[in-house]
Amino acid sequence: MDNILLIIQNFDVAIKFIADEYPIVLFILYFAFAASIGSFLGCCYYRIPRKMSLINPKRSFCPNCKTELTFFDLVPIFSYTFLRAKCRHCGIKIAPTYFIIEILTVVFMFLLLYLFL
Fold first, then answer.
1. Looking at residue 55, what is its pLDDT?
2. 46 in a structural domain
3. 105 is in which domain, residue-wise?
4. 113 pLDDT exceeds 90?
5. Residue 15 in contact with residue 75, Cβ under 8 Å?
6. In a domain, 104, yes or no
7. CA dist 22 to 14, 29, 86, 89, 100, Å?
8. pLDDT tens-digit profile of 45-90?
9. Handedness of CA 96, 49, 62, 54 (dihedral sign)
10. Is the residue at 13 inside a domain?
11. Structural domain count of the chain
12. What is the mean pLDDT of residues 24-42?
């Protein structure tokens, strides 16, 4: 138990150091975390109404061609922008809903950060 408390204290010190010395790093990490949560919520938005598993298939896929998305296609917000809202494989337009969910999640998470820190 003492080891766990020591790890938590050291983690807290490390986060405070990063926040004080390199705030942009903390901003980028928080943005990536929030966008990832938004990406997962987008996955839930698609799969739950269709009674699909959230675990299998493990990766997101194109609803049209059923191709599993590559790592670079899974980067929240940026992949939607760089692919110009189209599937890399079949070219079908990706619904803006996923992008909107990711953006709103990031905004909401930063609002929470602002309100509680």
1. 86
2. yes
3. 20-116
4. no
5. no
6. yes
7. 11, 11, 36, 39, 29
8. 999 999 999 888 888 889 899 999 998 888 989 999 999 999 999 9
9. positive
10. no
11. 1
12. 93
